[in-house]
Specification:
The protein is globular, with a radius of gyration of 14 Å. The chain has one domain: 2,3-Dihydroxybiphenyl 1,2-Dioxygenase, domain 1. The chain has three helices and eight strands; from the N terminus they run βαβββαβαβββ. The chain is of the alpha+beta class. Strand 3 and strand 4 form a beta hairpin. The chain has an eight-stranded mixed sheet.
Length: about 130
Amino acid sequence: MHFDHAGIATEDATALATLYTDLFGLEVAHEERFDGMCVVFLEVGDGYLELLEPLESGTIARYLEDNGSGIHHLALATDDLESALETVHKAGVRLVDEEPRPGAWGHSVAFLHPKDTGGILIELIEH
């Protein structure tokens, strides 16, 4: 596995992308509307910042209401998501997603429960 991206909840993904491109010289690698969100990926070396702006009620909207803008999750990439889920499940880690599901940018994803991962919502992702 390797680091893939940090998911950042924000009220305005376009404005935050502009700020990060201006401040840090980052480039937009991908942008889409997905699952009720505006999602913008900024390339940072071998990984990304994934900016998540809710366009309707849902997980990110609730996160912003409860916590404000900030890091929502960390994503680790794997070549075999189903095997990775089996490994973490056998280790006693609770799964938010028992099976891989479609994610942004056409990837398969599954989330691990933060109560079992040091308080961090971990996304496993297969490109």
